[in-house]
C-alpha cells in the first residue's frame, strides 16, 4: 500500500483545501499521473501519484482542509496491467502519425525560457501552418509576455504537423506549442483538422465543462457571486477559492467603469466600431500604472530649465563626440548625469519602501522610458552613476533599438531605481508622469520651446523646457523633491557644475 500525502506548499504556507479529485476509488492510476488538486491562498498545487496501481481509498475529500504531509489517499499496488490501462488513451492522441513520411521523425516545438519570474505567454502569431515546410532556425511563431515578444525558431528543418496552441492561447514556459516532422516534405502533414483541439482546452469555451473547486462554489454561493463574475486560474480555467476572494475584493475598483459608462450606440455607428482585445503588454501597463496610483502618495512638483548652455555645448562638441565615440551626443546623457548629481544630494528620491523599512540605494540604475509600437517599456541602465557621457549614450542607443524591435529581455527592464520619461519627443509641453513602482521618483522631460524670459532686466528669447518630478510623498518630503529638481535645473543651466561636482 502506497500513501499519497500533501506535498510542501511553499514558504510559510501550512495548509490547503482539497479542490478536485481527478480519480475515484477503484480507478487505475499510473505513476506521476495527477490525482488531485490542492488550493492555497496563493497557488494551486497538483498532486501526482507516487506509484502505479489502483486508488483504493480517498482520506481527504473535496473541500477538506489539510496540512502539509497529511494523508490524502492510499494506492494499492499491483498494477502492471493498471499502468498500461492508465496510459492507454495516449495512442488516441496521435491518429495522424501514419501521415508522417517514411524515414521521418516527430519532434516537439516547445515554449522557450521566457525570462525571470515569467511563467506564461500568449501565442501572438503563427508564421507556419500545418503542412508547410521550413528550415532550421526559421521563425515558427511569436509569443507575447507581459513585457516582451519572444520569437520561437524551428529546432530543425522539417514540416509543421500539428499546432497544439492556436493564436490567442495561453501557454506555460516549457509547454508544447506544436508537433513537427523532421522530414522536409510538404506531404508530411496533409491533415491537420484536429490541430485546434488542444488549443481549445486553454480557451474560454472549455470553461463550460470545468467543475469549479467546492470551496470556491461554496464561497460564491455565500456571497451571491456567479461563476461568470470570477476569472478562474486553476487547471482548464477552474475557479479556485483564491479567485473568488480576489473577485470579492474587486468592488473597491469596480466603480471605475461606472464613472464612465458606455453610452448607447446607434445601430449604424455600432457597425463602424471595432473591438480588439488588449495585448498582454497593454494590460500590464494599465495594471501597473493603476497600482502605482493606488499604492503611492503621488505628488508632482514643476520647474523650468533654460537649455541654452546644454544646446551650445552639444552643438560645439557633437561632431568630435561622434567621431571619437561612434555615437551621437544627445540630451539624455546630460539629463542622466544631472539626475545622478541630484540623487546624490537627495538620496530618498533614489530609495524605495519595503514594508516598514526604507531601502537607500548607493547606486543609480536609470530607467529610460521608451515608446514602442506595442506600448511603453522602461529599459534600465545599470550603474549609470559610474558611466561616462559616451557610455550612457551608447547604452541608451542600444536599449532603445532593442525596445523598438521587441528584443528587450526581462532582465534589461528590472532593477531600476529612478526613471526619466521624455514626452517632449512627442510634443508634450507639460505633464505629470506616473511613478514606476517600487521607485519613489520619476522625472518628466518636455518640449523645448522658445519663450520670452526676463534676464538681468532684459526680455530675451530662450529655449525653455518644463520639468516635472513625480514622487512618493510617503518617503520624499516636499523640500527634498523641490531641492532635487532645482539641482537638476542648476546642472543643466551650467553644465560645468557636473564636472566640478557642485
UniProtKB/TrEMBL annotation:
One of its GO terms (molecular function) is dihydrolipoyllysine-residue succinyltransferase activity. Residues 79-108, 187-213 are annotated as: Disordered. It is an enzyme of class 2 (transferase). It holds the Pfam family 2-oxoacid_dh. PROSITE patterns: BIOTINYL_LIPOYL (PS50968), PSBD (PS51826). Residues 1-76, 106-181 form the Lipoyl-binding domain. Keywords: Acyltransferase, Lipoyl, Transferase, Tricarboxylic acid cycle. Pathway: Amino-acid degradation; L-lysine degradation via saccharopine pathway; glutaryl-CoA from L-lysine: step 6/6. GO terms for cellular component: cytosol; oxoglutarate dehydrogenase complex. Residues 187-205 have a biased composition (Low complexity). It catalyses: N(6)-[(R)-dihydrolipoyl]-L-lysyl-[protein] + succinyl-CoA = N(6)-[(R)-S(8)-succinyldihydrolipoyl]-L-lysyl-[protein] + CoA. Its EC number is 2.3.1.61. One of its GO terms (biological process) is tricarboxylic acid cycle. Its cofactor is (R)-lipoate. E2 component of the 2-oxoglutarate dehydrogenase (OGDH) complex which catalyzes the second step in the conversion of 2-oxoglutarate to succinyl-CoA and CO(2). Forms a 24-polypeptide structural core with octahedral symmetry. Part of the 2-oxoglutarate dehydrogenase (OGDH) complex composed of E1 (2-oxoglutarate dehydrogenase), E2 (dihydrolipoamide succinyltransferase) and E3 (dihydrolipoamide dehydrogenase); the complex contains multiple copies of the three enzymatic components (E1, E2 and E3). Belongs to the 2-oxoacid dehydrogenase family. This is Dihydrolipoyllysine-residue succinyltransferase component of 2-oxoglutarate dehydrogenase complex. It comes from Pseudooctadecabacter jejudonensis.
